[in-house]
Amino acid sequence: MLDNLQAQAPDALLALIKMHAEDPREDKIDLGVGVYRTNDGATPVFRSIKQAEQKLIDEQDSKSYLGPEGDTGFTAALMPYIFGEDATMGGRIEGMQTPGGTGAVRLAVALAQQAGVTRIHMGTPSWPNHAQILADVGMEVAPFNHATKDGNADLDAVLGAIRDAKPTDAVLLHGCCHNPTGVDYTEWDKIASALADAGVLPILDVAYHGLGQGLDEDIAGVRTVLTAVPEALIAYSCDKNFGLYRDRVGAFYMMAKEPNQLDAIVSNANSLARANWSMPPDHGGAAVRNVLHDDTLTGEWLDELTEMRERMRRVREWLAAADNEVPGLNLAALAEQNGLFAMLPLSKDQIAKLREDHGVYMAGSGRINVAGLHAGNTDKFIAALADVTQG
Ligand code: LMR
C-alpha cells in the first residue's frame, strides 16, 4: 500500500534552512525562513519569556490535560491587544489556543467549510502554506492580485474580489506585515465596507502583530473590519512577536453575529481541533500568559518588540537608501513596507546566482527576510544584488 505514495518535494522554505546550514562560507547570509534576528544574526529567547518560563517551572503544579481549547488564560490575555478595550465586542468573541498560527489558519478554513463556505478569495502572492492548507482542507481558491508592480497594495483587486464574492465565499486577508510582500493595505475602511456590503466571511490572519508600526497601529485594520462586519474568524500567531517559533503558539478567535450563537460555533471548532491535534501544546501559551499577567514582564516584552521593530525599520531604510545602486529592484519601496518580508523582482537565475556566488539564501519567489540583514552584512548584500542584476 505505502508503495503507492509518490515522493513529494520538501517544503521549499524549510529546505532553505538546511541548505544554508550546510554552506561552509562564513559570510553567508540567511534571508530565508521568517525568523527575527538581532544585529549579531542571533534569534535569542525573549528575556520576558525566559523569566515567564522560569515562573512556569517554579509554579506549574500539573501537566494534566486541559481541553481542545488549551489555556484559556492565554487566549483571554491576548484579547485586549488584538480587539481593544471591548475585547469580546459585546460578548461576541471567544478564542482557543492552537498549535501555531498554522493551526489557527487550518481551524479557520475547516470551520468555515463546516459552516458552508465553499470558496476562499486569497490575495497572491501569499504565504505558500495558505495555499497548501486550503488544498488540504479541500477548499476552492479564487486568487486576486495582492500588490501592484510598484510595491503598493492592489486595493482595486481586493475590492473587486469582495464585490464578486458569492454568499458562500470567504475572503482571507493578512492583518499586517504581509507575507511575502511586506505591502499592507492602508484603506481598510473601504475593505471593511465592501466586506459588510457583500456579506462574505472575513478570515483575518495576524502572524506579525507588533512587528510593523506598533501593536495598535498594526491591528487597526483588523479592528476596522471587525467593527463593520457581523462575523469573522481571526488566526493569530505568537511565534514571531514572542519569539516562540518551535513551541508553536497560536490562537484562533471566532466573532459571532450574536453572543448566543458563540457556544455552537466554538463547539464546532473544539471538535475540529480534537480530530486534528486533540489539544494544543501547553508550554509556550502558558509562558505568554505569564508575561501578560505580570506588568513588569509585559513592559519588558513591549520593549523587546519595539527593539525588533526599530531594527527592522533601520534595515529597510538602509536598503531604500541603496535604491540607486541597484536600479530596477525598487528598493526605495521597502521603507514604506512593514514586517519581516519584502519581495524583490529577481529571476530564478539571479536568485540561484546570489546563493551560489555570494552565499545569499532567499526564497525562490524573491522574498527576503529583512531581519537577516544587519550592519555587518547589508553592504555585502547590496553589492551581491548589484552583481547579479548587472547584465
Ligand atoms: C515564513 O513564512 O517564513 C514563516 O511563516 C515560517 C513558516 O512556517 O513558513
UniProtKB/TrEMBL annotation:
Keyword Transferase: yes
Domain of life: Bacteria
Required cofactor names: pyridoxal 5'-phosphate
InterPro entries (UniProt xref): Aminotransferase_I/II_large, Asp_trans, PyrdxlP-dep_Trfase, PyrdxlP-dep_Trfase_major, PyrdxlP-dep_Trfase_small
Subunit structure and binding partners: Homodimer.
Record PANTHER family: ASPARTATE AMINOTRANSFERASE, ASPARTATE AMINOTRANSFERASE, MITOCHONDRIAL
NCBIfam families for this protein: PRK09257.1 (NF006719)
Protein name: Aromatic amino acid transaminase
Organism: Qipengyuania profundimaris
